[in-house]
Write a structure and sequence with these properties.
151 residues, mainly alpha, 48% helix, globular
């Protein structure tokens, strides 16, 4: 509710779902105006402190099922112990759906959110999705001295 109150002027719009753009703006607002960002969207680097804690295993949300199987096998639990199956996010970072999430986010906000999660990308081996990279490159071209030249 607080995200909608911050991002929308009309009280009639309060009942509608938060858009991805509104969520990004709220996270950026929290980063700039609060002493500590909500733990649910705080960079994992800040939550897990990988440079200060020696972890035996690093699992990823994207591969949670396989990672859980590996951990359960490693700790040698019986075959009657299973990781609970869930409906994990199946969006691929370069899918059309992913592109649609970012198409209304300003390039400035994309740069700021990438900066916010910079250490997560570095330490955990994530790459900037191609659809996001293309948005940034297209904007750089539009702002370059070559943008006015016809092909």
């Amino acid at each position: 509710m607080i995200i909608i109150q911050m991002c929308r002027c009309s009280s009639k719009e309060f009942a509608k779902n938060v858009t991805f753009t509104e969520f990004i703006r709220y996270v950026l607002w929290e980063r700039e105006h609060k002493a500590q960002v909500d733990v649910h969207w705080r960079p994992q680097y800040d939550v897990c402190r990988p440079c200060h804690i020696k972890y035996d295993y690093l699992g990823y949300y994207e591969t949670m099922r396989d990672d859980a199987k590996d951990v359960l096998r490693e700790i040698a639990v019986g075959s009657d112990v299973h990781f609970p199956l869930g409906d994990f996010d199946s969006r691929m970072p370069n899918s059309r759906e992913y592109l649609e999430l970012f198409e209304n986010v300003s390039v400035s906000d994309i740069r700021r959110i990438l900066d916010f999660y910079r250490n997560d990308y570095k330490v955990f081996g994530y790459e900037i999705p191609d659809v996001v990279r293309r948005r940034l490159q297209d904007e750089n071209f539009r702002n370059s001295s070559y943008a006015h030249v016809e092909a």
